[in-house]
Amino acid sequence: MKAMNPLFPNGLILINVSFREGNSPDHHQNITYNQLLRNVCRCANALKLLGVKKGDRVAIYLPMIPELVYTMLACARIGAVHSIVFAGFSSESLCERIVDAQCNILVTADGVYRGDKLINLKKIASEALERCKERYVPVCSGKNLNRANTPWDESCDIWWDDLMDGVSDECEPEWMDSEDPLFILYTSGSTGKPKGVLHTVTGYMLYTSLTFKYVFDYHHDDVYWCTADIGWITGHSYITYGPLANGATSVLFEGVPVYPHVGRLWEIIEKYRVSKFYTAPTAIRLLMKYGREPLYDLSSLRVLGTVGEPINLEAWLWYYDVVGQQRCPVIDTFWQTETGGHVLTPLPAATPLKPGSATCPFFGVQPAILNEHGEELEGEAEGYLVFRKPWPGIMRGVYGNQERFESTYFRKFPGFYVTGDGCRRDQDGYYWITGRIDDMLNVSGHLLSTAEVEAALTEHPSVAEAAVVSRPHAVKGECLYCFVTLKDHKEFNRTLMEELKRKGQREKIGPIATPDFIQNAPGLPKTRSGKIMRRVLRQIARNEKDLGDLSTLADPKVVEVLFSQRCEAAA
Ligand code: AMP
Asked: Any idea where the AMP-dependent synthetase/ligase domain is (predicted)?
């Protein structure tokens, strides 16, 4: 089946407006669908001038500015495959993703202010390209901040404005097959190397468009706002593709929830009369600490969405009572980068809610719960959450690695898609996500693999071995508790801790992977076959004294030592 690249195929001019809200409240702009179309076409023509063709991969490392949306849609318009890298990732992470996807061009900006913190994106982008010299990657950079001291290499760098100058604002869309790739988005893998999740044109668009419409009960007079970053799947599906395919009026927010003051999100809801609001439990928990003073007018709100991690009861009730003033259903949407869109979710006013439960499957989705042996459990049960049949938005592959696609998602339980999450079904058939059951951590709604963080820590010359587990955190949900064993004669001190925090994490992966706790571990609890018993480390991190059966440990004394030296305070 042939399908047109689903971007305003008739040059459709809609009068709806998107609101762009900058990092500073004084910086705002309205963007009509007509302006969006013209900017997308201009960018599409510019990419073509740079030699980008259908099927080429384009890396995008941009903050939450309209150019990010223009560039991703420009790729879609000419059939190029975008690979957006969250603009908080390090140069090494960016390089790894550029190389893996074999990108032909990188689009970035000179910099961005996140709150009052300046991030020199172009500097990080240039460092990334230094690291992956084997590829010649031209860089197109926008002057977001208009900074004079941006690192510049005449041989491959091009200013965005120079490139857009004089290009036509009309561009015929490329005809695509429905199963042609639309984008790659990297997500953490339990072996440490990120996976390039591949989504295709029609199934993904259909699914994000449909879920957006029904899950947010979207109507034409709504103003919709999702606070996620487009660098993650939530921003792809529910800032760009889903809302735009519905012609929705939405808000694109560049800033952070507590800048310049803790009422920023409520101020924006009041300013634009937002009716459908979508955020993450970590943001709710952060804002709960401050209350809602001074009172903003939130009477425009109709539906409140949440995504990213299980929402705890206290946060759910605060969201419902204080933000929604008990008028607005809280829609707890469970889904993944891999699922493309919501798979377990209530529908506003139609599904009776239970705080903390993502409730029931979306139309056509067939969840099941399996035990360790792959046997399907009926009725009330707890086990592995899997899905029986595909739905339009399911990922189509791991870019360049079909074997990994099969082994990660389909081999453990043949015939099912394996989510990697644990789940409980109650007597009413409602689903309750209990958290990851693979070696993954969910920090502020973002997945990290323990292997990835461990690999970063062991790169430090003083570290012999590292093991990372999660510990509950009041705002982030989970945080990183790291055990490090040093090489002989190396000293565990403040400087080393700082180096591990800075070098290992900020430089290798990105700030979300900064360890909260670092414990010196003269030895790690291992089985006789040499496997680290992470369960025991998790219990030490959480101060759970009842450790259960330790008989398989090679040296049980290690546990006592680790317990006696466990960290009470964050590093
Ligand atoms: P990502 O692919 O980065 O979006 O992360 C997907 C993971 O986030 C899922 O596998 C879950 O572990 C977690 N997650 C996302 N949404 C929810 C939710 N509503 N409730 C519980 N966990 C969630």
From this structure: 26-399
> Cβ(500)–Cβ(460) under 8 Å?
yes
What is the helix (H) or strand (E) element at residue 106, kind and residue range?
strand 105-109
- β-pair type (17-21, 28-32): antiparallel
Flag whether pLDDT at 266 surpasses 80. Answer: yes
Tokens at 157, concatenated: 């760098």
Where is average pLDDT lowest: 149-158, 216-225, 278-287?
A: 149-158
**Ligand 1 atom having least distance to the Cα of 433:** 21
What does the alpha-carbon distance between residue 538 and residue 525 come to, in Å, rounded to a whole number?
A: 11
Q: Which residues line ligand 1 (CB under 6 A)?
A: 187, 233, 307-310, 332-337, 358, 419-421, 433, 436, 442, 446-447
The arithmetic mean of pLDDT across residues 261-278, rounded, is 95
Q: Which helix (H) or strand (E) holds 387?
A: strand 381-387
- Give residue-wise pLDDT tens across range 453-478: 888 888 898 998 899 999 999 999 99
Worst-scoring range by mean pLDDT, 221-225, 272-276, 344-348, 490-494? 490-494
Residue 562 main-chain phi, psi, to 5 deg: -65, -40
What average pLDDT score do residues 444-449 get? 87
Burial of 536 (C-beta count, 10 Å sphere; 0-12/13-18/19+): buried
Report CA(437)–ligand 1 centroid distance (Å): 12
Cβ 107 vs Cβ 73: under 8 Å: no
**24-64 pLDDT per residue, tens:** 999 889 999 999 999 999 999 999 999 999 999 999 999 99
Cα angle for residues 287, 119, 44 (degrees, 5° grid): 100
pLDDT tens for 174-195 read 999 999 999 999 998 777 688 9
Alpha helix segments (H runs only) across 50-196: 66-78, 91-101, 121-131, 160-164
Point out which residues pair with 441 in neighbouring strands: 448
CB distance 205 to 182 below 8 Å: yes
Question: Ligand 1, atom 4: nearest CA belongs to which residue?
Answer: 336
What is the number of other CB atoms lying within 10 angstroms of the CB of residue 237?
31
- Closest Cα to atom 20 of ligand 1: 310
C-alpha Rg value of the chain to the nearest Å: 24
Per the DSSP assignment, residues forming a β-bridge with 60 are: 84, 107
Measured in angstroms, how far is the CA atom of residue 111 from the centroid of ligand 1? 30
Name the amino acid, one letter, at 370.
L
CA 310–ligand 1 middle distance (angstroms): 7
pLDDT of residue 510: 87
Pick the residue with more confidence: 408 or 452?
408
| DSSP states of 289-314 | TTTTPSPP--TT--EEEE-SSPPPHH
Answer for the pair 224, 16: CB distance below 8 angstroms, yes or no.
no
pTM: 0.89
